[in-house]
Amino acid sequence: MKFAVTASPHIRSGDNTRRIMLDVLIALIPTLIAGTVVFGLRALAVCAVSVVAAVAAEWLWRKITRQYGTVSDFSAAVTGLLLALTLPASVPYWAAAVGAVFAVVVVKGFFGGLGQNIFNPALGARALLMLVIPSAMTRFAAPGTALPLTGEVDIVSSATALHHMQIPALPEQSLLDMFLGNIGGCIGEVSALALLLGGAYLVARDVIKLRIPASYLATVALLTAIFCKDQDPLQWMLYSLLGGGVLLGAIFMASDYATSPATPGGQVLYGVGCGVLTVVFRYTGLYPEGVTYAILLMNAASWLLERFTPTRLFGAPQKKGGLRR
Amino acid sequence: MRSKFWGGVHPAGRKELSADTPPTPVSAPAQVAVPLQQHVGKPCDPLVSVGDKVKRGQKIGDGKGMCAPVHAPVSGTVIAVEPRPHPNGTLCPAVVIENDGKDTFESALKPHADTSSLSADELIECIREAGIVGMGGATFPTDIKASIGKVETLIANACECEPYITADDVLICTDADRAIRGLLILGQILNPRRTVIAIEDNKAKAIAILKEKLRSVPQVELAVLPTRYPQGAEKQLIQVITGRQVPSGGLPRDVGCAVFNIATCASVERAVVEGEPVLRRIVTVTGPGVKEPRNLLVPIGLTFGEAVEAAGGLTGDVWKVLSGGPMMGRAQGDLFASITKGVNAIVVLTQAENGEAEHPACIRCGKCVAVCPMGLQPLYLYRFSKAGDSGTLRYYNVMDCIECGCCAYTCPGKLPIVAAIREGKQLVREGK
Asked: What CATH number does residue B139 fall under?
């Protein structure tokens, strides 16, 4: 009789990568529903195209490069869905598909696959689409517009809250509409309520820790309250938090494992950095929104933050972080 | 100064399988192979040769330096001194004795009805001659651990934080007086200001018994700790009881502590009061792959196979047989190894417990960092062990890893982190 001889520990927790990705998908359901309610079935169709393209690209890429299959870990599906949620519902289907393929193959696959990528795949693809089709990426249908399910969408762009704030002026939308999602914008960013529900689920399931989202949002809140461009700092702050993709970014993008620091201290600094850059880009940039580039830049800095925030070794004085080994 | 230790995990305890089974004595088989190394340190030299008659309790192996002698667990004739399977996976020189079934006892140790007249040196000598080692599995020679002069805090470790194992639990339930007396003897050597028995709160019966017994021993304090693995790891337990951290690379005595397993305390009593060296121990034979999980009182040298038979034999789709618990135990390829002083459990897992993945992959979730009780970053220890980069491994303090397995247990990517870290430590030791 021969028994398996491998190293300890011999039992493993029930947690696994697939379960984590599934939890992220579950957490995105409220947001997906909100997007569909606000923009109609076309929003759902954009998401479907993006997810299918991402999963197909993952399957093909692993096949061509002769690596074991990873479609079943659902990470490609998560990437596809997250990308779609950062797009306007009126975006051409081909753009969503191209973005999804770029995200999975170039931003993730080229770097070695899941866990090895430096940049958030969905945001990397969104950055590409902003370069390639800037007009389609920044035209947003008003909520409740009946978008045609097929063919080119020719819409009258409605001004989002962030457009108003760039003037600068307080948006015409009410804060309640902003919270519930009765506003124009990208599919996944309109309903703060749905995003917060998803975030609460992720925290309750211990998929993400609060450190990154909390430090990110707190930084944005603090900076917009201090550098307020209106008479009422509180209102300005709330519109800043509810407008644009800051909630989607803080809860679902910045908390991405692969592209954020693994040390607790690094995670807080990373969230603060995301918040600072978001506000700076919003205030000074050409586009009203800055979340995408803020997170992508912090992705690149995450190794540095980790190096400067080493964990405390048991039985030793706290080591100072630094670049030298 | 009670505090908490860092990190840790909550694996399913599964102690109910064997917790209510008082140790069943198992009689010695017709032949026993007693390994000459059952401790950390230098192996013993055999003191007997083929054909010699030995008595039960007679010393059959000893050596100089860091060494704990071994004794014949049965009386009979030495029929071989040859390498035999050891629970550590190697072939280790062993004295093979043919049992004459008479159990004639003879020991160089003297019984002492009253231990108070004995000096610390006499007690330490007695512990050494009895071959006592850390019975929790560490197998560090107890006499060396006890010869550190005076300590501030003496801790008896009854945490038994590993899942499945109930050997210490039933020892307390059936023989608490002996364990407490043994602890007091160790206290006589070490003169502590504080003596503590530490136990986790999942052992209600043992706690009740200890509370009752300790009423008449006011100098011993009972610390009931919330169950969390690895509470019973020496450094973590000291942190919990005293709030102090053993310095990196240091020893418990650097923070004025000495920690002994509760079963070690019982062995000390047996040696000093009754004059009996370590000839037997309690082993929990358990797991879903064992027909009748139970605690056994076995002679040292009994094979794993004989112990498993005494618990009804194997059942189901057996995947792994472990010497020790599922978090830190060692997997056995077969059942031929002899039970040594440090084997507190034989855990048999079935395929249903197999949580290993075909393609482990790190997703950088950072959960390993959160659960590491030593404050390490296991994901990097894994990466740089795999890369063979010993310089970076030193930067990440690889040598401070206690191999508790929390990181690999919790890893959603199912990385074999501990296996990689062991390779990494070896690289650093070799100075590559």
From this structure: 3.40.50.11540
